[in-house]
Specification:
single chain; alpha/beta; Aldehyde Dehydrogenase, Chain A, domain 1; Aldehyde Dehydrogenase, Chain A, domain 2; seven-stranded mixed sheet; six-stranded mixed sheet; 38% helix; binds nicotinamide-adenine-dinucleotide
Length: 497
């Protein structure tokens, strides 16, 4: 028995029949549990038209009204977070605690957006010229699209949607077709919170739906998160069609360990950041860069900790779940083979092992490689699985150069007790989010999230004040209330006096 997962347009489930559908699986059992409708370009266009028709009413809603809806949404999301976490675990595979953690981080963006009256305050200058005032305002864009990846089915949409809605826009969300149910459940909460129909819509689909949104003249902005090749494509196509685009891409996150670091705490951090969510996090640590003498001892400590990890069904209190699809599991396992062929030392092989879940689940246990070199595919590529590579370097400078030469620049961390070295690193490293003894430095909601280089195309990062900027456009008003002193003819360029 499979569930049908369909679009939510204008506050209602779509009732048509779909020519194309996609399978949604439970990764811990390997069984198909749902079929998701995949939108045609025409249907995506209908959703845009619905959002466009609803938009003026919401754009004109007072800031007080918008804040009320945001607060109500925040309360509902908090009340339903366990249900949503269960949906995530059932379709993504990550363990329940981790799923709850992602909903909580998304909730924080809703809390940030509750402060929208303050965030949208403009500037005012009285008497810039005699009896002339100037003030700035920020206005909504119109219909905006959010296109999200499989690995954070709740948090990534929530990076954008509360801010977009609070700013007065209408949203079309195109979630990942691999785990779409959490997005629908969250979208329904907006209706319960009092958001007018048509302001929050969900269109499921694949390339056809994405292309329709990227080229539709009534879509004003696109927030995309996914792999680097698709992010680049989305950025190039969307901007070529006149849209504002922020496209967050893939990652290869390095953790630089200096010889003075506390190796027990560092090993804990490396295991947590390397294998949490089975390595399917854009901020996962996938390359551990060990400086000078630390490598042997650190590898032993990591290996010891890995032997205690339990991989299994996310509902059973395990540490790590399966990978999202069989195809992805096989791709990651293929990298383990490539690492061996290239001459890296396989310290722990995740292909062996016992898994606490269904026989047909998409299992791969935590895997550790040592003596990895930058030419190997396991270093070069974003594997997006539970594979941690140790690269040995002789000095801080060699480690820094390695990180800066990498085409990705999402997150990085340094582990050290030397404040001066840490400070140098934060200044010199060419990466957007930096942790100092913090392995996964995801910024809080009132700062902005985003990487550098091939990890982000566009100028603006997600949420925080950059998010408010992305979802609004500025206007500056110069005003005077005419009195006799303003009379007379003068064809010169206006000057202030
Ligand atoms: P993906 O690129 O395969 O898919 C992302 C979205 O793009 C999905 O909605 C998908 O339906 C759509 N899509 C897929 N192929 C497309 C195509 N050919 N044309 C148009 N649209 C297409 O990514 P994924 O596998 O779902 O997610 C994992 C990736 O996302 C990793 O690379 C990860 O690093 C990245 N990610 C990055 C961040 C970040 O903040 N930088 C955050 C989360 C995930």
């Amino acid at each position: 028995m499979t569930t049908r997962i369909t679009h939510l347009i204008g506050g209602r489930s779509w009732e048509g029949s779909s020519e194309r559908t996609g399978d949604v699986s439970n990764p811990a059992s390997g069984t198909v549990t749902g079929r998701v409708d995949l939108a045609s370009a025409e249907l995506a266009g209908d959703a845009v038209a619905t959002a466009k028709a609803a938009w003026p009413g919401w754009a004109g809603a007072s800031l007080a009204k918008r804040a009320q809806v945001l607060f109500a949404f925040r309360e509902l999301l908090n009340a339903r977070k366990h249900e949503i976490a269960a949906l995530i675990t059932a379709e993504h595979g990550k363990v329940l605690d981790d799923a709850l953690g992602e909903v909580t981080r998304g909730l924080e963006v809703a809390e940030f957006a509750c402060g929208i009256p303050h965030l949208l305050k403009g500037g005012f200058s009285e008497n810039v010229s005699t009896k002339v005032d100037v003030y700035s305002i920020r206005q909504p864009l119109g219909v905006v699209a959010v296109i999200s990846p499989f690995n954070f089915p709740a948090m990534v949409p929530l990076w954008f949607i509360p801010v977009a809605i609070a700013c007065g826009n209408a949203v079309i969300l195109k979630p990942s077709e691999k785990d779409p149910s959490a997005a629908v459940a969250i979208a329904r909460l907006w209706t319960e919170a009092g958001l007018p129909d048509g302001i929050m819509n969900v269109v499921h689909g694949d390339k056809e739906a994405v292309d329709a949104l990227l080229t539709h003249p009534d879509v004003r902005a696109v927030s995309f998160v996914g792999s680097t090749p698709i992010a680049r494509y989305v950025y190039e196509t969307g901007t070529a069609h006149g849209k504002r685009v922020q496209a967050l891409g893939g990652a290869k996150n390095h953790m630089l360990v200096l010889p003075d670091a506390d190796l027990d705490l560092t090993a804990d951090a490396a295991v947590n950041a390397g294998f949490g969510s089975a390595g399917e996090r854009c901020m996962a640590i996938s390359a551990l860069v060990a400086v000078d003498t630390v490598a042997d001892e650190l590898v032993e400590k990591i290996k010891d900790r890995m032997s205690k990890l339990r991989t299994g069904d996310g509902t059973r209190g395990c540490d790590m779940g399966p990978l999202v699809t069989r195809q992805h599991r096989d791709k990651v396992a293929g990298y383990v083979e490539e690492g061996l062929d290239a001459g890296a030392t396989l310290v722990v092989d995740g292909r062996d092992g016992e898994f606490d879940g269904g026989e047909d689940g998409f299992w791969l246990g935590p895997t550790l490689f040592d003596h990895v070199t930058p030419d190997m595919s396991i270093y070069r590529d974003e594997i997006f699985g539970p594979v941690l590579s140790v690269v040995r370097v002789k000095s801080y400078d060699e480690g820094l150069n390695l990180i800066n030469a990498n085409p990705y620049g999402n997150g990085t961390a340094i582990f050290t007790n030397d404040g001066g070295a840490a400070r140098r690193f934060q200044n010199e490293v060419e990466v957007g989010m930096v942790g100092i003894n913090v392995p996964i430095p995801v910024p809080v909601s009132y700062y902005s999230f985003g990487g550098w280089k091939n990890s982000l195309f566009g100028d603006t990062h997600a949420h925080g004040t950059e998010g408010v900027h992305f979802f609004t456009r500025g206007k500056v008003v110069t005003s005077r209330w005419l009195d006799p002193s303003h009379g007379g003819l003068n064809l010169g360029f206006p000057q202030n006096d």
